[in-house]
């Protein structure tokens, strides 16, 4: 029998490795940005076309590469970051796998231009599908420029799995945020299809957070600083009042590398215990510095998960540091039963000296004299000003005449006011109004049927009613709007504002009226009828969260998602008491819908119990 095991050709092995390294254009952006940072660049430019499907280009002013290094960088397992296996446990760099450029070159057209500072000329290398097309000497500035064009050109099946441009751009923006936040000492610029999305200079950490997430973020931040032998913490957490329903503003950086850690995230949530509403998440931008020997980075292909030597200690330190900051800046309530607030000095009296009270004595005062001139004048002990004495108490009764026993009160003239009694509009007073529905645990509406009993989930039923109404308004493009007396001013991050801009037309068809919509602020002058002003920000936050999770790709699904999101935000919540009229209206509205059986999320809105089923329970 012949041998059947054989070595894979290099180009096939590179494509298999590319499946692990490059999942979408955002993966290419991450690898190229990290290489630029490792090259000690101070200015990095990211240029994207068609959400990275046509072009991903990263230009840096780092130290560049020699001719030999430029050619060798595209070989598998080639890296300048580690020399021995022991180096894996004391890493201070980003890309150390040595497969990034080789994997990218296996599935795209790559052009590399690089030059070192001491050289006069640089090198240009063009590679298509792991095959080197050309290598030439060229004139180029110091640093490196890598252009990745036509991603997955030789693997059409992988290209078909890519999402819409909106979705892929969001993933690229997320990667850009993670790298830019981790390195505030580096200037970044980000361009998409010729438009400038981000341009952040070298700055401190607070300025970097504000530049990326909007100027309104500055007032939300609470600084966190702690240094121990095990861990050094620096950064910011968001105030509880500005918490969000999404986890879009949660960033952990360990030794300037973005990581995801549910365990450390739980430490932050426990520090915020009692300060957040249900379903809301805290914002945080925290840098953790630990000994590189105490962590293992190489446990996940994307290097976003880290193994710590002593997680319990880190958990305790992080939780106490955040809790301390919230208390220090009067975010968390403090209980002190021995403290008396009445002893606090008012702020307006802080720098004033105590006034000496004026004491006056009336030497002509005679307590046995009836002369009013001799009566004492009261003196205010606090102010020193004289006040007029009160009139004699006998004057209270001047002008009143006593009728004596001759004129007694005639109580026969007293009348009592009574409520008017309205007769029933029905001639037959025996007719009584019967309740056809009742509410169970303020969650379910129970009604009777000919065949048995009907139980309706009030929240899911109301979602179905609102969903069909909103979808009708968006489709027909006719919705009534109520004008606000004072315009509503809202602030969102540039990313969130972009989502609202994309859905602006559909939002206007539901009844929203925008007078201003830009990256700095959103001003709303009208809302759909029945929507409280206080609910507007909650509706938009829920909508942004749903868009980021469901990722609509067509106009119809965008309208459908908008109707679902608004219905979810405005539907009657479980635990809300309803009157008999409201219960009956809910039942009638539900069964007037086209699909009353399920909610917008395909959950059942009601169940029925036949009399036979009930009787079986008693057998």
- Per DSSP, the total helix count is 16
What sort of overall outline do the alpha carbons produce when their principal axes are compared? extended
Beta-strand content bin: 15-25%
Q: Give the CA-CA distance, first to last residue.
A: 72 Å
Query: What is the number of strand segments?
Result: 24
| Number of domain units | 3
Looking at this structure, what is the CATH superfamily of the largest domain?
Histidine kinase-like ATPase, C-terminal domain
Q: From the alpha-carbon coordinates, what is the Rg to the nearest angstrom? A: 37 Å
CATH topology of the largest domain: Heat Shock Protein 90
Structure keywords:
619 residues; alpha+beta; Heat Shock Protein 90; Ribosomal Protein S5, domain 2; Ribosomal Protein S8, Chain: A, domain 1; 3 domains; five-stranded mixed sheet
Question: What do these coordinates show?
Answer:
This protein is 30% helix and 21% strand. With 619 residues, it is an alpha+beta fold. About 3% of the residues have low confidence. The longest helix is centred in the last third of the chain and has 19 residues. It has an eight-stranded mixed β-sheet with strand order 5-4-3-6-2-1-7-8. The chain is extended. The protein has three domains: 191 residues, Heat Shock Protein 90 (2-Layer Sandwich); 124 residues, Ribosomal Protein S5, domain 2, CATH 3.30.230.10; 164 residues, Ribosomal Protein S8, Chain: A, domain 1. α8 runs parallel beside α9 and α10 crosses α12. It has 16 helices and 24 strands.
């Amino acid at each position: 029998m012949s041998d059947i095991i054989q070595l894979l050709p290099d180009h096939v092995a590179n494509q298999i490795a590319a499946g692990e390294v490059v999942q979408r254009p955002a993966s290419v952006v991450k690898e190229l940005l990290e290489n630029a940072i490792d090259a000690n660049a101070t200015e990095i430019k990211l240029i994207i076309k068609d959400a990275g499907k046509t072009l991903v280009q990263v230009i840096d002013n780092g130290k560049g590469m020699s001719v030999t290094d430029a050619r060798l960088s595209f070989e598998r397992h080639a890296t300048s970051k580690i020399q021995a296996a022991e180096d894996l446990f004391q890493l201070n760099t980003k890309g150390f796998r040595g497969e990034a450029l080789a994997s990218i070159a296996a599935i795209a057209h790559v052009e590399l231009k690089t030059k070192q500072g001491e050289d006069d000329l640089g090198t240009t290398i063009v590679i298509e599908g792991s095959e080197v097309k050309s290598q030439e000497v060229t004139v180029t500035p110091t640093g490196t420029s890598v252009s990745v064009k036509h991603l997955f050109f030789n693997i059409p099946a992988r290209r078909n799995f890519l999402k819409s441009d909106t979705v892929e751009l969001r993933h690229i923006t997320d990667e850009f945020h993670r790298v830019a936040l981790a390195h505030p000492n580096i200037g970044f610029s980000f361009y998409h299809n010729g438009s400038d999305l981000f341009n952040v200079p070298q700055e401190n950490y607070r300025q970097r957070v504000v530049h990326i997430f909007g100027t309104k973020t500055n007032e939300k931040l609470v600084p966190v600083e702690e240094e121990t032998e095990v861990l050094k913490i620096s950064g910011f957490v968001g105030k509880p009042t500005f918490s969000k329903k999404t986890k879009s503003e949660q960033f952990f950086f360990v030794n300037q590398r973005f990581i995801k850690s549910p365990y450390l995230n739980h430490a932050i949530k426990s520090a915020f215990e009692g300060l957040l509403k249900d379903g809301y998440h805290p914002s945080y931008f925290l840098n953790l510095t630990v000994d590189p020997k105490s962590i293992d980075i190489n446990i996940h292909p994307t290097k976003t998960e880290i193994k710590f030597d002593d997680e319990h200690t880190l958990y305790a330190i992080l939780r106490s540091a955040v809790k301390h900051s919230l208390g220090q800046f009067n975010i968390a309530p403090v209980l002190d039963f021995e403290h008396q607030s009445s002893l606090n000095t008012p702020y307006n009296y802080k720098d004033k000296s105590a006034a000496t009270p004026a004491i006056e004595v009336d030497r002509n005062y005679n307590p046995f004299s009836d002369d009013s001139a001799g009566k004492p004048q009261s003196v205010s002990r606090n102010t020193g000003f004289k006040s007029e004495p009160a009139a004699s108490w006998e004057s209270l009764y001047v002008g009143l005449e006593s009728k004596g026993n001759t004129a007694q009160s005639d109580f026969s003239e007293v009348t009592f006011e009574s409520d008017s009694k309205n007769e029933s509009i029905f001639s037959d007073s025996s007719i009584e109004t019967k309740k056809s529905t009742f509410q169970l645990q303020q969650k379910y509406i129970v009604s009777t049927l000919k065949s048995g009993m009907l139980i309706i989930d009030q929240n899911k039923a109301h979602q179905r009613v609102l969903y069909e109404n909103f979808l009708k308004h968006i489709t027909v493009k006719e919705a009534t709007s109520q004008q606000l007396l004072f315009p509503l001013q809202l602030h969102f991050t540039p990313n969130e504002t972009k989502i609202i801009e994309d859905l602006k037309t559909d939002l206007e068809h539901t009844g929203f009226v925008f007078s201003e919509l830009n990256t700095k602020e959103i001003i709303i002058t009208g809302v759909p009828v029945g929507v409280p002003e206080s609910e507007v920000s909650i509706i938009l936050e829920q909508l942004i969260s749903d868009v980021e999770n469901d990722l609509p790709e067509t106009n119809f699904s965008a309208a459908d998602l908008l109707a679902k999101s608004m219905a979810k935000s405005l539907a009657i919540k479980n635990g809300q008491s309803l009157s008999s009229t409201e219960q009956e209206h809910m039942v009638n509205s539900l069964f007037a819908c086209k699909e009353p059986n399920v909610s917008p999320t395909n959950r059942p809105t009601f169940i029925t119990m036949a009399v036979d089923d009930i009787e079986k329970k008693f057998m």
